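Morning!

This is the sequence you dropped in the shared folder:
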Amino acid sequence: YAAMPGLLDLAATDNIELASAASIAAAALNGFGLTADQTGHVADVLAESAARTNATVSSLGNAFRYIAPVAHATGISMEETAAAVGILSDAGISGTKAGTSLRGMLSRLAKPTEKSAELMAALGFNAYDSNGKMKSLSGIIGNLQTSMSGLTEQEKQNALVTMFGQEALSGLLVLMEAGPQSIDELTNSYLGCEGAA
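The structure's back. Tokens below.
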């Protein structure tokens, strides 16, 4: 009952069946550890993202199925995750591909290989703050840009594959090209998008 108004708005936003809207909302709610009474906000974020980027509500839902639990575990908000998925969608990486690319990136940061950790240290890249908490996506991308500023394009790509794996490469390149400011701008727009759905 608490979720129903948000689910109805979500279904109307993308002209999808209520069952599909419920499945998409459930992926976001469960994945990000949210409660049923936050369904309205989830619907607003998905609707706003669909309006501002090439992502659709359905493709966002598909991406969230893959990235939401990992993003939540590493402290990345639903709004910032939606911003990253939207930016990837603008570059033609949408749905499950966007979700798996972001999941691969965060997973490798959470548990880097020995070779990856050595390279991160050599470049002066650190995805965690002084308290051991993972930085925001925009903070990670900004730190990557700074630490790789002296590398050639080939060296950047080699370093990214070593640190994050092949699966995350295309998504990382898109986010690095967009930059942290674009991620922050979209994220902030989702934080204040009440009523968008």
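Headline: The CA atoms of residues 2 and 40 lie 9 Å apart.

More detail when I'm at my desk.
O.
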